[in-house]
TrEMBL record:
Signal peptide: none annotated. It comes from Acidithiobacillus caldus. Keywords: Hydrolase. Pfam families: ODP. SMART domains: Lactamase_B. GO terms for molecular function: hydrolase activity. Residues 26-184 form the Metallo-beta-lactamase domain. PANTHER family: HYDROLASE, METALLO-BETA-LACTAMASE SUPERFAMILY, METALLO-BETA-LACTAMASE DOMAIN-CONTAINING PROTEIN. InterPro entries: Metallo-B-lactamas, ODP_dom, RibonucZ/Hydroxyglut_hydro. The keyword Lyase does not apply. The keyword Amino-acid biosynthesis does not apply. This is MBL fold metallo-hydrolase.
Length: 261
């Protein structure tokens, strides 16, 4: 099932939240369409490919897919790369660090001339005449990591930042308000996830400061429910900027030999 997050006469943002069933972690896929041209964000792997293709067709012609954006290199992000390259003329946008890793998901030669390496500072991408911003999110959690900001809908598609562990139906929920954010953070595993997966307080704070300088109305992560409204976004950034995570939390006890039996 798809959910339209934003729509006007020329522009749409669509979320797919319930395509993964069974053993795989819940993951959201997003589609931005402008003037009939599309960008697919973090399409996932074999668990999502067929259903995502069918769902996209309800909103635009898949033959008009210009880009597949991969926030980082994980299999739940872009393991289906070969399929999209096979059936469309789209190019894959991925961090420069991962351009030579991506072919491991693909048939030999499939990626030739079809991959755009995103430089560390990010870049602008034109979709149907409209520019979208690709902004840095390095070490959150991958060393080469990016998010997409859509200036029309004012949605920041935030990859693993903001991830919350809920079902596919639960991921369609929209969290609004400071109190609702605090309650959801406590109930949906956000603290544990971010403390384990993020790259430390320094990068969390730098990312939050960058986002405060953007006109963000909605944060839509790759896993779980999204966070809408200026109040909610501010509450999220205040929490995230102060988060101890990753290397902040390890010490000598985490590196020992022999391992337990």
């Amino acid at each position: 099932m798809s959910t339209v997050l934003y729509a006007d006469t020329s522009h749409k943002c669509i979320a797919f939240t319930d395509l993964v069933e069974g053993d795989g972690i819940q993951a959201n896929q997003f589609l931005i369409v402008h003037e009939g041209e599309g960008m697919l964000l973090d399409p996932g792997g074999n668990l999502t490919y067929k259903h995502l293709l069918a769902g996209m067709a309800e909103h635009f012609l898949p033959s008009h897919l210009d880009y597949v954006f991969a926030s980082h290199e994980d299999p739940d992000v872009v393991a289906s790369a070969n399929g999209w390259l096979l059936i469309t003329e789209a190019k894959i946008l991925i961090a420069e660090e991962w351009t030579r890793f991506l072919p491991h998901f693909c048939t030999k030669g499939m990626t030739t001339g079809r991959v755009i390496g995103i430089p560390p500072a990010g870049m602008w991408v034109e979709l149907g005449g409209q520019e979208l911003a690709i902004v840095p999110a390095h070490y959150l959690h991958a060393v080469g990591n990016f998010h997409v900001y859509d200036p029309i809908s004012r949605i920041l598609f935030s990859g693993d930042v903001g991830a919350n562990l809920v079902s596919g139906s639960g991921a369609a929920a929209v969290i609004e308000g400071t109190a609702a954010f605090a309650a959801h953070r406590a109930s949906a595993g956000m603290e544990a996830f971010h403390r384990r997966y993020m790259g430390g307080r320094k990068v969390c704070a730098l990312w939050a400061e960058m986002v405060r300088g953007m006109d963000v109305e909605w944060i839509a992560p790759q896993h779980g429910a999204s966070f809408r409204g200026k109040e909610t976004v501010a509450a999220f950034l205040d929490w995230f900027a102060e988060l101890d995570s990753g290397p902040d939390l390890v010490d000598a006890a985490d590196f020992h030999y022999p391992p337990p039996r």
